[in-house]
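Hi V.,

Quick status before I head out on leave. The structure for the redesign project is tokenized and pasted below; the design run finished overnight.
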């Protein structure tokens, strides 16, 4: 597992597999109910993630790098599970008002996500504090890339992109579709692409000049993760069937009318 290409493939597989598992769990909850129980059942993964991060901070080895990476993904994954299951979203549970625009629409959209955003910020802050003076800051770097990519993606979905895949939006978040804007790209898109491309270049450069196995593996993981984030944004404008990556493993969704969610 010390080869950078193996680390990159590992990051790709973990991203694909963990995303599929979360989507599958939420889709089954949409069909059978039990969203809160699903979130509670996922709590051990949050605890394990925190423990893995804590154990990795002073371990600047290849194993420690993988441990920090997986720990950050476990924390991130539980937060995403809680969001997609509708347990941690925001105080606004209604669709966008017809004709509403400008700051009022933006604040309404933010209110639909506020609790989730605050939890992500809290997670990032906690990792930053825990990583102060640590020999291994892989967990913080991983979470920061995920956080930056998610903020950029949300802003582009709100302001407008040509392609928006709503196939995997869970029943509890059906109202969020009304805040998406399908249309020409805005200035938010080139800004996001520029930021993520610069980050990818920085990670790749550090990978190229890495002088230890641990640094090489760490930056291989981060390079792959950033490349995935960049690809996610390009798929908002390039017509590729990315949904096929997970559609085959998920049960068909139940049709549900958008509106107020309780």
């Amino acid at each position: 597992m010390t080869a950078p290409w193996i680390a990159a493939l590992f990051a790709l597989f973990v991203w694909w597999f963990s995303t599929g598992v979360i989507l599958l769990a939420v889709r089954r909850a949409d069909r059978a109910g039990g969203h809160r129980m699903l979130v509670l059942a996922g709590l051990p993964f949050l605890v394990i993630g925190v423990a893995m991060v804590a154990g990795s901070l002073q371990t600047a080895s290849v194993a420690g790098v993988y441990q920090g990476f997986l720990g950050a993904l476990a924390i991130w994954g539980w937060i995403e599970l809680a969001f997609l299951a509708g347990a941690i979203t925001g105080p606004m549970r209604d669709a966008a008002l017809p004709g509403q625009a400008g700051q009022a629409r933006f604040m309404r959209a933010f209110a639909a996500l506020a609790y989730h955003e605050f939890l992500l910020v809290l997670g990032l802050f906690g990792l930053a504090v825990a990583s102060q003076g640590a020999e291994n800051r892989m967990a913080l770097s991983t979470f920061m890339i995920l956080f930056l990519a998610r903020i950029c993606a949300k802003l582009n979905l709100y302001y407008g992109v040509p392609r928006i895949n709503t196939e995997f939006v869970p029943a509890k978040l059906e109202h969020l579709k009304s805040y998406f804007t399908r249309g020409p790209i805005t200035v938010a898109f080139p800004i996001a692409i520029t930021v993520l491309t610069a980050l990818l270049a920085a990670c790749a450069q550090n990978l190229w000049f890495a002088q230890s196995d641990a640094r090489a593996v760490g930056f291989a993981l981060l390079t792959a993760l950033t490349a995935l984030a960049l690809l996610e944004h390009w798929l908002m404008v390039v017509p590729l069937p990315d949904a096929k990556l997970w559609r085959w493993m998920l049960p068909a969704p139940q049709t549900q009318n958008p509106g107020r969610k309780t």
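Above is the designed sequence. The radius of gyration is 19 Å.

G. will cover questions while I'm gone.

Best,
W.
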